[in-house]
Amino acid sequence: MLYREVNTIGAVSINHSVVDELIADAFQPYEEKAWLANYKGGVSDVMIRIRNFDALAEKVVTMSEKGIFIRLYIMLRFGSSIADVTGGIMDRLAFSLMEYLELPIDNIEIVVTGMLSKNVARRNIRTDYRTLLNERAGKS
């Protein structure tokens, strides 16, 4: 169980599988551009050929006093904009967490572990939701 709130009326609990579904929904617009991966960024050629990237997916989802913290490891298709894809995924995920589950967000981190073309080129590019929001506030 990820989160549980108890009050005089009863208790509400949120399981990890609910957050997993919200993460999967956040990736839908980027179905051919981004995939969940593992922290090493290594995916075998067999997995690429059968297009089963989610079999190796790793994610970190924890709850603290500040709110929910999510770290996703992803692979991007070569030529995709890192800022656009990661920003879009973080926006959709943050909206879902606040709108549907009403959970405060500590941070959402996305680590790009690889770029996929014919082969996988390893990368280690980190983006996070707080930085994205600060950059947007500075542009206004």
Q: Could you describe the 3D structure shown?
A:
There is one protein chain. With 140 residues, the protein is an alpha+beta fold. 33% of the residues lie in helices and 34% in strands. The chain contains 4 helices and 7 strands; from the N terminus they run E-E-H-E-H-E-E-H-E-E-H. Strands 3, 4, 5, 6 and 7 form a 5-stranded mixed sheet that branches. Strands 1-2 form a two-stranded antiparallel sheet. Helix 1 crosses helix 3 (82-99). The longest helix has 18 residues, at 82-99. The protein is globular and about 55 Å long. The N and C termini lie far apart (39 Å). The model has no long low-confidence stretch (mean pLDDT 82).
Keywords:
single chain; 140 residues; alpha+beta; five-stranded mixed sheet; two-stranded antiparallel ribbon; 34% strand; globular
Please tally the β strands and state the result: 7
Identify the overall geometry: globular
Give the helix level as a range of percent: 25-40%
The gyration radius over C-alpha positions equals 16 Å
Would you tell me the structural class of the helices and strands?
alpha+beta
Question: What would a concise description of this structure say?
Answer:
By secondary structure, the chain is an alpha+beta fold.
